[in-house]
Write a structure and sequence with these properties.
homotetramer; eight-stranded parallel barrel; alpha/beta; four-stranded antiparallel sheet; 11 helices; 2 domains; Alpha-Beta Plaits
Chain lengths: 351, 351, 351, 351
């Protein structure tokens, strides 16, 4: 990536001496950047135009006379629309997501058994899903909760995926698991708690399979784009951003689904954006309305928890749809997908 | 309203003595409530069934041995679906909102001049709005910002409303202004900063005009329903709830529009729910996608800022649509409204 | 107040034409402000130095080519340390707060009866409090909760205050009540829900008695300073800022007491800052440790809920101290007040 | 650990049939738990007393008729005060923390060079610190920021630690690094972004060195105690909890330091609690006041960023103290430590 020029604004504290100002200006000039001097009566503002990494090397923020340094442009580059104005299309198995293609990923929160996976896989395929999800490694808040079946779960997911012909999506928890997950799944999912696990992101940046990056519970949109930048800057451009709710003061719902993030991300980045209304609400009866809302505001896909029998689900039962509810939702989504100017991703459309 | 029985759970601290337990149980019984005794090895739990206001009178939370008291049912009653299972329909002028009727309220943030109001009123009417908004009293964070035209602004709003034939919606800031506002407007709007101004709510509860209650920036959904309960319990059932974004850590958008609140409110309350995507995003280009999302998740209406010339707007210019953008949005909304099973509120349909 | 110059930064979108740039620069120059032109390869940044209110009049944010406008200095003036470098001292009755004098305000959440006020007033005086609090008008989330005794409560507060010789502090809910409150109390308290009730702030700005301004539940520190600016800019400089906890995702405590705000406010503003650990925690056993922490980080005073018999308190019983606990806390605070370089405000020290 | 009985409350939806109720009661009874039946007019509440993990196995939350299940006691056990009423003391090198012993950990954010580590180590030792911190692996929001020196950094930390005689504290990013970190450091630090990296926590639970567990940016106090429970339940009781600020809407400071958490954690858990005012504020001038506040509200120690020359720091310069500022803070802390009833941890006091 060619280093771009970008202006940076340096606000000085009141009473900064002329000597301090001159020292900073000459340090800026010494790096080859173009210094700017903007005196005021109350305060002086300095500027610098050029590669901000060169400026960062000066560590001007450490000067006592510097109150604040404001980078003027966004800190992410490769994932930005400025870098790549057209929407990216990512392929999952033989389906496409982004650029007008809409894809639904569905399946249970956790892989529990062969039977559960097969029955749920058939149900989500019948309903019209384009990919199958299922977690083998489950990060759980309490050490006393079910933690997933691990490698055995990965194999069950792979088998169910092959049998029903849907690509498999599963969460990878750390760099050491990437190989094992890659052997069984078509898409890596990075969970909320790992969105800023930069080791994991870096390793996934060297893989060739797509990565679904879920927003951290307290991650800003910019944090999320920077996390994606970790993956893309290592060489893997197949990143799908996933809004799944943030943590706020509201306790009526499990999380606050931040749908503002969808059009905002679409306006700033070329990457596909999907929404997980299951975690984003935590309440079964809110999944369908929020899935429709996600479509309406421009999402490229959905990730929905479905269980062939939610009353027996070992995790997230209260937010899982049963096969009938899922099929009903898929039918109801159709007019919204059409109104949003998108088409449902079909298999085999990639030449 | 007949007092309903509801169970209340009282968790005692470890090591609570038998004497304390007996005292609490006998105080509960003394009020006529039915006491429950649920001993455990680590902890004892007590319960009470009956009118929770009677229980509240005992102030058991003040006992040192009481760790927590959990009311089992919701604290709001009149606005709850349990009290009134069918959706309420509120009439604004001769239009209806709720029960399948969808209404768009549009207009400028602030009334600025006669010309501005007339031109904007014509534009929103042409675009298909069902009511005209415009603020005469503007609560502003800084004392140095434009604070609205006051009474003169109310009159300009009234005149524009009459001329274009759309009912007028405007914010009322305090109890002392209710009469003046009622003389010029068809609908009272309670702003975010006033959602918990209980004096104002109580006075509005004695009026006969509808009240749009905007969610406070840090108000939970339950807080909002309790604020509505203030109005309804005084005798005015014409309350419309408005989601307009909450304050979170995210700074990319002005607020985080909590669309989860829409289906949640619809499932708990019979009151109509509308959404304000202008304040909920703060960014013009996000207004249209989030308006569509609001429709998709079940909102009964929208409140949208429109200005005949946003480049000259005295407040909220960056989030205001111009007439062309508004007309385009209204056309684009149609298939979403239909898909959501609603119809656009037309004038004169009330016999 | 003389208008101060301050630099303002205007970030343009990529591809802004030279014609648009020239138009903006000439509009800035046309107002008499000094325009700044800072071209970059990717983006152009413009600046303006002068009175920001003049710039605000141009409404440049409404131009399609303008991405963001960043005011460089703080928007508050009169309350800022730049305007008034020395710490302000506010007098409450014949005590002082600020400038090294530390004051504790204590009393019940709500005035409930003559006996309660007298007994609690005696207790807080004996414990060493410098002022007596008690609420006559209680804003309550539920319409079914106790709403205070109103005018009768104000009189009970006044009587208890006279009897024990401590100045009286009480909440005022709206502009219409200011006169009645002023007749009975020495200090106006603006509650959290009213921090942005600008009508009320404006009326209090024309009074001569001190105002305790409590931080809104979702108010930023800057919002709070701007609310204080409303009062001071009307002519009443006797404002005391009160940190009382903000609303966050944490539910273990009633609010998250933001003690960072204390040294931050002290470094930016000359106004005295106090802390309310009762509302800031909501838990009796956290009041004492957080009161000590408030002293340690530089607070000028405390506001503490005390009830002569918390088991009978009609509101906030679980966070109220009893007389013995209050006296113990006051003794325990002493070494912290000394270590913080402050002295407890004594009566009669004002000549 | 013996499974404890604890009551669990099951709220049923209105209109639940007698048949559903009986089915649930008989399933509860079938597990050996004691079922409770609490009928009301509007709603029925069921209860169960016994091991909640047995109840969790029934997955009653998946029943359509179940509205909410409320566990009555806390989900953490081993870290709770109920399990272990006396305060735990953890030893770091030959110093103690907890149970009245107060320890300050200080050093640079990142290890940058041998010279930097040695000079800073000498400075913090001279100032009175009891342990040396320094990060070799730096998780950074942007892929373009300095990521730490890695293994070479670990060795520099180890050398500086040996030379100055202070135990070394450093962050470990993932399970694969635990061995390398253990070879160079005396204490593992789990960073905010990893608080819920359960793989890492589990591996650290099998180590014998102490673990400092930093609170996640959006982690509740309960989440934090459950993360500690992961470590302790694997066999390592040497856990130190660290409050370092949470993410809220406030942007004036880098994070909102939640000091409420200190006395709350101390009242619920036996583990030592320390505070990081450097990350908790992000502003150098707030470090000293918030360090004092942390002492005052009961913290057992502090973690403070110190750099021998903050103007050259490669990360977190703006929140780092220089040696003179650190020495001044340590002197100023003394009376607060004494007032809080603690003593500064000295070396060699462990027999």
């Amino acid at each position: 990536m060619k280093n771009k020029e970008r202006p940076i604004i340096i606000l000085l504290k009141p009473d900064t001496t002329r000597r301090d100002i001159d020292e900073i200006l000459s340090r800026i000039a010494g790096t080859g950047l173009k210094p700017l001097y903007m005196p005021g009566i109350e305060r002086t503002v300095l500027g610098a135009i050029g590669d901000e990494r060169v400026l960062a090397g000066l560590r001007l923020e450490n000067y006592a006379c510097v109150e604040r340094i404001t980078p003027v442009l966004t800190p992410y580059k490769l994932v930005s629309k400025e870098a790549h104005p057209a929407e990216s299309v990512v392929t999952i198995g033989d389906r496409r997501i982004g650029g007008g293609d809409f894809l639904v990923i569905a399946g249970p929160c956790a892989v529990e058994s062969e039977e559960q996976m097969c029955r749920t896989a058939e149900a989500v395929k019948a309903g019209g899903a384009g990919a199958l999800r299922g977690g083998a490694f489950k990060p759980r808040t309490s050490p006393y909760s079910f933690q997933g079946l691990g490698l055995r779960g990965l194999e069950m997911l792979r088998d169910a995926s092959k049998q029903c012909g849907l690509p498999a999506v599963t969460e990878v928890l750390e760099a050491a698991d990437v190989e094992a997950v890659a052997a069984c799944a078509d898409v890596f999912q990075v969970g909320s708690r790992n969105m800023q696990n930069y080791r994991l992101l870096t390793v996934l940046g060297r893989q060739h399979k797509p990565v679904i990056l879920k927003r951290g519970m307290s991650a800003t949109i910019e944090d999320m784009l920077l996390a994606a930048e970790y993956i893309v800057s290592e060489g893997n451009p197949r990143v799908i951003l996933c809004e799944r709710g943030i943590r706020t003061f509201e306790t009526a719902t499990r999380n606050t689904l931040d749908l503002n993030a969808v059009p905002f991300l679409k306006s700033r980045s070329h990457l596909p954006v999907i929404v997980d209304p299951s975690h984003g609400t935590g309440l079964r009866e809110l999944v369908a309305p929020m899935a429709k809302a996600a479509v309406a505001c421009g999402a490229d896909g959905l990730m929905i928890e479905v269980h062939h029998d939610p009353t027996t689900a070992m995790s997230d039962g209260p937010q899982s749809l049963d096969p009938g509810q899922f099929a009903g939702l898929m039918r109801d989504l159709d007019p919204f997908i059409t109104a949003a100017g998108k088409r449902t991703a079909a298999a085999g459309i990639i030449e």
